[in-house]
Queue: 2 jobs
Job 1
Amino acid sequence: HAQKVISAGEYQERRSRVLGKSLSLSYQQPIGMRRAAMQYMFDAAGNTFLDAYNNIMLVGHCHPHVTEAAARTSRRLNTNTRYYYDEILDYAEHLLSWFPDHLSQVYFVNSGSAATDLAIRMSRAHTGKNKMLCLDRGYHGNTQSGIEISPYKHHKDQEYPNAVVGPFPKKPANRDWDSWYGDLLENYRNLIQRNQNDLSGLIAEPIMGCGGQLPLPEGLLKALYTEIRNFGGVCISDEVQVGFGRLGQWKWGFEMHQVLPDMVVLGKPMGNGHPIGAVVTTREISESFAQGPEFFSSFGGNPVSCAIGKAVLEVVEAEGLQQQAANVGAYLIHEFEGLAANYSWIKEVRGSGLFLGIECLAGPKQNATELAAYLCNELRNAHILTGLDGPGNTVLKIKPPLVFNRANADQLVEETNNVMRKINQF
Ligand code: PMP
């Protein structure tokens, strides 16, 4: 039906009048979104966009099984954890069945940030120490304690009163792997040893999202977990971006690195757009935490959120979406590597399943940052949504809803190729 199309200028004027200043927009030509379904989004003018970017919509935008669960439950009951109700138990049991046995306790909150914050509190309660080891360029949340361990959002030379920041684990082009990795490990070991009287633990993403879709080097997490545990610290895996089967071969990123964390932080895809997050942990840590102030969240674990979370798990299982992520992801990597062979400014295609990054180098006329921005904006103009991140925003990020299929992959690769051909002609 006919809808009023509001101009970008009008939106901008209204936003700047009433919304806080620090909000940014995607693309040189921002989009006024109206509707979405599965891997597609529709703007106010009726254009269809292929969403190759939104990793929150794990099972697809507005998936009917999830929206039905939301509507059905919100019509019947919404309350909090101070009552008995089935939804929280059904969901907790289902969610924990996706984890190894030692991760047997779940705390529900309303965002990835709230989950990180809670994980920090728990680490402090369990160890009696305050600082967290984190990785340079990592991001873990927007609360005060989350931002303190998120170098991604820090300005240069800012201090870290509650964090110990380890080096960004990316090999520079001029180093050979073995010597670089040896130095990296030694650097981390020294940091851990120097700070062990203050460190409560380590938090890391198995593949760094904001760091530019960068998988941690093989062996790094295993080595760090050993060092941290040697002095009683806890190991936290931030699975906010990579969890729930997105990596294809693995349900959780920690499996990729063959480690078993003491705590897992969950968010984004967990509610397919509904604000829900969680900390999953061990009985021992849960017991230490219970010695401190009572934990209560007004919304965390409410029946509506739990029904939604459970519906998301059911769709992933019923539709075989983890396998689809593995298949379509492998196909995309293969196709993009084919492109990389033709265009010298693609440095690397990396990631796993439907969590991929294409790192750009300088092109014929543009530096790497300009080239990646051009690529992302031209794809947007071709009605495909992707994003940018990593040092200098040189990495094109691809992390679509897992219903993204082979035909979608072909469209993405073909349009990417079209933009790259244009770049060649500059
Ligand atoms: N951890 C990671 C790895 C994230 O990417 C994010 C969000 N970008 C968060 C935590 C925080 O999640 P939220 O925005 O839901 O608070």
Job 2
Amino acid sequence: MSKTIIISNRLPLQLKIHDNSIETIPSVGGLATGMKSVHSGNNSIWIGWSGLTEGSYEQSLQPKINTALREHQCVGVALSKEDIDGFYYGFSNNTLWPLFHYFMEYTEFERSTWESYQEVNQKFADVVLDQIEDGDTVWVHDYQLLLLPKLIRKKRKNVSIGFFLHIPFPSYEVFRTIPCREELLEGILGSDLIGFHTYDYERHFLSSVQRILGHEISFNNVNLENRVVKVDSFPMGIDYDKFYNTAKFHNQQSNKERSEIQQEIDKHLADTNKAKLILSIDRLDYTKGIANRLRAFEYFLEKYPEFKGKARLVMLAVPSRSEVPQYQRLKNEIDQLVGRINGKFAEVSWTPIWYFYRSLPFDNLIDLYTSSEVALLTPIRDGMNLVAKEYIASKVDKKGVLILSEMTGASNEMSEALIINPNNFEEIADTLKYALEMPEAEQIKRNTALQKRLKRYNVEKWAKDFMQALESTKQVSKKYAVQ
Ligand code: ADQ
């Protein structure tokens, strides 16, 4: 019986070693949730790195680790610290991540990290080839594994391969600057189906394929000598019911049952002079436009001083890639900006910014979503941005205003939000004023339309649509085989 193999850089669980035993903590992230319908029963396996580098634990524990992974239908790819430095921090996050997000000034190209990227993609391929059989279906995820589809296809002709990119695909003019552009495109083209969050990313990819490799494109198909590769957009959704139902449950909880953070928020809301809360949540990453957002908020308070004491920015930044100097510099910049703005505007009874630099448990995240009148999300570039969708899904009473950067994939599907250019401080300041004063009836009207769409196109539907499209490419391949 044929099976499905999901492959991502990280496995959907975390491993913890306690003396002689292994604890597995399943991930609750969007991808793991979305894959539930695909990664279920005994008919699928998930291949990826476990998060433990070779040599960081006793070798005698390896059989136990393998067994623990097997219980979750997972198979680990063994990576050394050098692999992680070169492949992950190096080529993936110092070359591909900034380039694909149009941060060309941050993009480094080093032969050694490119070599490490090729070696690690080969390591993934070796594990996959060990597991795969004719007739199986493979779904490869994201920018760390761009070479993998071709490496699998080279050895296995009779399998279906899908690839999905979670970040933007840049325009041809940007993509062409990378020295290994042919190898990257050929790597992805090992697939039968290639998926992006938006139609724009799809067009950019097709344009690069045509102009760099010279392949013929018809509609959204790439015609290779002996195969057709289908390219399409699949905007990723969220687990809508989980956010909506948890928010509903929190609204019904008694005071005693409420989390510490919610009790603090309750105290704040009980204050008759309460300031409205403007929420922002992201990983601390330069693509998310956090520094821009702070400067725009500062400008807003200068332009509309009547909001001093009446509005407050609640900014949650999740530590991310904190070993990379670029990210450390960004953290310093943000610390300074928050300090400067708070120092400049604070009053005895009001501080303009509440800044949290940490990861919060899911329940606290929901509390923040439900308690904020406005969400201000200003990425400079973002493949999709799930926070925007989660904020709207958590608004059980349909009240709340989403301000969203036009540079996110999510803005394409969320036209009822207030869409802004993250570099235009004038526009952000005016939009913030508009959002804080928006009548409730307008909020409800906008959010009713947004929620309807998000509920229908949830993450499960996203995974199902992709798998169905991959299945239908098999028919096309068969036709080619006959001709
Ligand atoms: P990310 O860049 O990580 O994902 P995003 O889509 O916003 O960005 O997802 C972040 C996730 O982390 C959300 O589900 C959110 O709930 C969670 N999260 C954020 N802050 C948190 C906190 N403080 N504590 C706990 N959880 C927190 C990449 C791409 C995106 C794309 C996704 C999915 O960069 O563009 O939308 O993959 O494809």
